[in-house]
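Most newcomers find our protein records easier to grasp once they have seen one. To make this concrete, we reproduce a full record directly below:

===
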Amino acid sequence: MSLRPGTVFLADCPARSAIEIIASKWAVVTLFALSEGPRRHGELVELIGGVSRKVLTQTLRRLQEHGLVERRVYAEAPPRVEYSLTALGDTLREPIEALTTWARVNGASVATFRESTAAPGTAPEHG
């Protein structure tokens, strides 16, 4: 990969569009939550923690629109709906696991740095 001027994620570049889809924290966390198999909406809310049902629904729809997540409705009473990674979404499993491992190993260091550089009298952002 070459890093020449004008070659890194141009506005109309498919790579930039792909990065924008998965760049939100809820997209990455949702994809990670689905990496071990299909889950129902309520399971995802519980597993992820901190995400509202509305935001999760919006995230799942966006991931579906881009071919990363599949929504399957089962003809049962009451209807059962499960979400799972598509074959394309599954290709993100390894990079997201690597990113998650990095976050677990380095999260405390990032938080410590933020706290040490925060302006006096301001609280650092969390989330």
